[in-house]
Amino acid sequence: MSLCDMCGKDTNLVIALIEGTELKVCEGCAKFGKIIRRIQPEPTKKERKIIEKTKSDEKEEIIEVIVEDYNKKIKQAREKLSLDQKDFAKKINEKASLMHKIESGHFKPSINLARKIEKFLKIKLIEQQEIKDKNFNTTKSDAFTIGDILKKMR
C-alpha cells in the first residue's frame, strides 16, 4: 500500500490521468480523471524479507581493463615492425605526441584506442576482470526523509 498523491490516503493505487498529469491516486480520487493502469501492491515487510533472502549476496560483473605493462608491449611490438612513433601514429590515425605519452606510460589509452592498437600490432592489451560486488543491506538512518515529514504532518 502507498500514499495517494491527491488525498494522502494509504491504500492500493492506480495511475490516473488527471488534468493532463499522470498521478498515483486512490480509487476515490481516480474519478477526477481517467484510469490508465492499476499498480501492483508492494510486498509486505514479511514478503520483502523473503525476497531479500532469496537474492544472492554477491553480484558478478565482468569489465575490460588495460594490462599493466601496456606501454612496454606497444613499444616492443612497434619496434618489431621497424616503425618509429611518428609512422606508427600515422598508420593508426593518431597523433605522434599521444603515442609518445602512451609508450612512456604517462597516458593510459582508452579501451577503443587500445583495441585499435591491438588490431594493428596484433598484441593483447585488454583483459577481462570479474568484479564481485557485495550487496550491503541498507538500514534506516537517523536523518529525516521527505516521507518522514509527510507522516508527521498527518
- Name the poorly predicted regions: none
Rg for CA atoms: 29 Å
Query: How many angstroms does the end-to-end distance come to?
Result: 16 Å
Q: What's the mean pLDDT score?
A: 83
Shape: elongated
Helix content: 25-40%
CATH first level of the largest domain: which class? Mainly Alpha
State the CATH architecture of the largest domain: Orthogonal Bundle
Number of domains: 2
Q: In the CATH scheme, what's the topology name of the largest domain?
A: 434 Repressor (Amino-terminal Domain)
The number of E-state strands comes to 7
Q: Structural class of the helices, strands and pairings?
A: alpha+beta
User: If helices are DSSP runs of H or I spanning 4 or more residues, what is the number of helices?
Assistant: 7
With strands numbered from the N-terminus, the spatial order across the biggest sheet is 4-3-5
Strand content: 15-25%
Short description:
This protein has 154 residues and is an alpha+beta fold. It is 38% helix and 24% strand. The strands form three sheets. A three-stranded antiparallel sheet has the order 4-3-5.
